[in-house]
Write the structure tokens for this entry.
Amino acid sequence: LGRPGVDCYCHHETTAAVLQLQFLINEGALVTACADDTLHLWNLRQRRPAILHSLKFNRERITFCHLPFQSKWLYVGTERGNTHIVNIESFVLSGYVIMWNKAIELCTKTHPGPVVHLSDSPKDEGKLLIGFESGTVVQWDLRMKKVDFRIYYDERSFPLSDGHPLGELAPEGKQFMCSHSDGSLTLWNQRNTARPFQITFPHGKIQKDGRKESCKPILKVEYKTSRNSSEPFVIFSGGLSYDKAGRRPTLTIMHGKAITVLEMDHPIVEFMVLCETPYNNEVQEPYAVVVLLEKDFIVVDLTQSNFPIFENPYPMDIHESPVTCTAYFADCPPDIIPILYSIGAKHKKTGFSQKEWPITGGTWNVGSQTYPEIIITGHADGSIKFWDASAITLQMLYKLKTSKVFEKPKPGEVRGGDLVEEDPYAVQMVSWCPQSRIFCVVGISAHIILYRFSKYEANTPIVSLEVRLQCDTEEVLSPSETENQPCFPEPGSHSPVQASPGSGASEGVKDSIPCLKVKERPVRVPPGYQAELVVQLLWVDGEPPGQITSLDINSAYGLLAFGNSNGLAVVDYLQKTLLLCLSTLDLYGAADPYQRLTRSPRKNRQSTSDFCMRGLSSFYSDSKKRIRTSYQSLTELSDNQQSVDMERSKSPTSVHYPPSSLHSEGRMPRGDPAAAPRASPCSPVFHLLDNVKGPGRKLSLPTDLKTDL
């Protein structure tokens, strides 16, 4: 990983776990040690990284590797306690082996254990410090092929950290620090190796009997000097006491007398201190700590006293909240990715370090053959994330929280099933038009939110539209019962309608109420996607609304269509009105579920037939032949109103709506007012035309249809 957007991907042919990584600094190469006891040398300079050399250990297991800066020798420790030296240029064994029985005293009767640490001396590259699991530490002279000193400690040792001259304590000496399995840190002076001159238990408290409480092992420690302070940085993982169960993994930073404990959400795999210089014989000046967790990757800022973390630009865990839906878009407008990135960069989280991301290697170049690709993910907490998928890894561009549209529900206030109550804002479906930047989100609480993109901050109210999309299953008849009956029951029995204002539940039965409550006050929204309209399905007779299963938007006509198992609805999101609402029974009659012949009702007014023809042509523009037949039937006018009503009841296209619901905005039905209760104009065509006809809106018949008619 380099600067944000720069990444390189390597994959071993085997499935063996990667145990350790070693960069060949400034040489564009990488050494990997795998669990199958194989070393690999990767070339990172070419466009596609590839393995140049591999070295297999057949008789010994690899436990630790160390490659000094600007050295051609790679030191490899094994499970048997031996240390091998590999020539990094030819990538073969040099033949120089530090045997375990030569590293320890001849009188020692026990095996020292596997090699757990290797490091070169900061002052003399010909000195190698070897740490064994049993607690034995040996400094080996590579030139003289002998031991300089040996240290024995009762507790098991873990990776050590070489020290540097400390003027106040030993002006001419060297120190090194070692961590142990009892949670202690020991500081040793190379002049006197009989006993450590400092033993500390950073998290061990003194009990009443005067004994130290037992602590967890300190798995790794780093000891770094600072130019601005005489006190070094001591950073380690683990070491907490056993007194509390279920404590989270921690990283401890000791600077002087100050001890800071950082709790992690996941177990720590490895950490590394970033310093100003790669030379061990200089003052390192640490500025950050990189921590690799099992499911995350964080960087801690050491230059500030409260040690904040940097905001991670890499998507290490796309399931920060579980992903519930995804959508992929290719060949997006070229300006959409920079716009989303610039807007998303302004939404900075609080509590993070104010400094720039410290990993800055490489340059970010979008290839000439790359076309803009965007992936949108919806999550269980109601959040939406836009990702740039043009490169190898995903780069998050913009994050949107749909939960901000609704009032925060109180416990037990969410009206829905168990699934809705657990995650009431979970995203089920998204629909996006990259050209117009209109964005729709479908939630699990049977709601739709329509967003419009804006570069400016706004403070506007959110319009809410409630739709009653439910039918009574008791009214559904079997095919045998409907052979000699009309396709639909009486008006108002099962047709879905738009909720009238002021409707609500009565006598404890939930009816005509949504699952969530939209904020009524104006909402201040930052630049980006801003909520413009919320469509919610309502409860009907104590039954929750069915979840929305389909959605589509047409930004050219300003229409939004959605449906579920109960029916279909079309919304004009420009005028924020419901245009059409049909139940499934109305769409597919029980008598002819697979085939429907369109028959228009006969009218005794020419103007009414004109309206009917326009409405039918807008819905069945692709059925020109059927429309001609329907138009011919319209010319046969009848003066008998009773026959007209009977014919209308038989027409498959006549869908009855209660007048109160169809004309909730105060409109009267067209035609004779006295005929309104008989629902003469109450077909979906007339309801659609009533809502479409408005200021600046015109519904015209296609040219080819006019010619045919």
Remarks:
- Confidence is low (pLDDT under 50) at residues 162-173, 473-507, 603-609, 611-709.
- Residues 65 and 560 are 61 Å apart (CA to CA).
- The radius of gyration is 37 Å.
- The first strand starts at residue 18 and ends at 24.
